[in-house]
Known about the structure:
four-stranded antiparallel β-sheet
Amino acid sequence: MTARKRDLTGEPRLLLDYQHLAHALSISVAQAKELAAAGELVKVKIGARVLFDVDDVKAYIKRIKSAA
């Protein structure tokens, strides 16, 4: 599930669940959960839902690209 929330500036913020995160990174859901558990990606917990900010996912991709 994806959710659009607004940040403090009023801009919409796209949040991804594990399934959409995995799809965005072309990895399995299990691998996405491992990345989150290892602290590689910042989690946003809203109630029982665990979500990931698209901006954080983009920053993660940028980090791993520059490390290569």
